[in-house]
Amino acid sequence: MPLMFYIYRAVTWLIGPLTSILFRLRKKIGREDGFRKFERRGFAGMARPKGLLIWVHVASVGEMVTVLPLIRKLLEKFPEAQALLTSGTVTSAKIANDNPHERIIHQYVPMDHPGFAKRFVKHWRPDIGLFVESEIWPNLMHRAEQNNVPLFLINARMSQNSFKNWKRFPISVRHLLNQFNLILAQDSHSCVRYEMLGAKRIITAGNLKYDTPPLPYKATELQKLNQAIGNRPIWLAASTHETEEVSVAETHKNLKDKHPGLLSIIAPRHPQRGESLVKQLTEMNLTIARRSENQTIKADTDIYLADTIGDMGLLYRLCEIAFIGGTLTPRGGQNPLEAARLNTAIFYGPSTENFSEMFTLMKDEDAGRAITTQNDMTDMVDLLLSDATFRKKLSTNALKLIDKNKGATEETLTAVTPFLEKKISR
Question: What's the pTM?
């Protein structure tokens, strides 16, 4: 093993006592679950089920929503199996709890400490491990390898920025990547970058996000919001990050006279920012209705602040126009397909590195439009509100793009099935 791994292992051992302090700090800002804190130290929340156990690890909400259909297909194919789904965020745990399955167990992933990792793997003894997208944790992977758990990196992606950073540690990165029995890259750009970093077992399998079903919603909630909004012109700024809300507010102020009754909806990527956003937007002389407080949309409401978790399926069905957040600030962008799948006309800023190939395809197929500045946002919202034919063209092209790129789920099933069948035959 590379020297860097031993250094990492030693450092994570030494800072073990500090993890309690880190946990408390994260809990204060709503990023840890105090009731299940033991799971973050590798202690199990329940007994290991008997039989075949498929371990799937995701980072947060987006990856969890993406991988749930694959998990269900695996459980259909292997009726004797159970799935252990791990993640690291409170929001993802809520998604898992809101979408229960009798054969899926959710646990918080342990912090990447050698002792926590050992405790976790020793208890659960998974038969296979599927890490999703870019989840690479050296101690957890090392302990799994020590216990002969075959590992896969599925729907793997490598942005240009990540590639530049990883190139600084070529020996260590090559060692980590080749701990995976197979890497299934979601696009050709990621595949090439992984190969350049030294990955030996890698294929391009497509992006699981194209196979994901539409986000769920509550019909009663949609009906209630439609009744409150009536015929008002509306648009949505989805999964926004800091500073983007100001651009949305300025766009609203610029257009409210031209489009009487305009309602702008903001769904922040991190709902815990709701309190500070209310203050910020109120200081801009805007009237706010806050979803987390069950505040009603009234005739004079300028901004509906959807500072809640799990409502994107509802909001995309409510609005025909959506700005994809994390693109007007240098965050790399959020997943545009969630909106596209629900017949929404999409536009986005220049920061799209997290989903670069996806946004490139959208541009090539005229399935979404790019903007650069806040003034561009005003012009684009104005155009989309004014031109129903233009809205329809973008949303229709987006649906065609999704249909054209499906198939990653079957590719992934084909790749991992032989390993699971081998486990069963023993």
Answer: 0.88
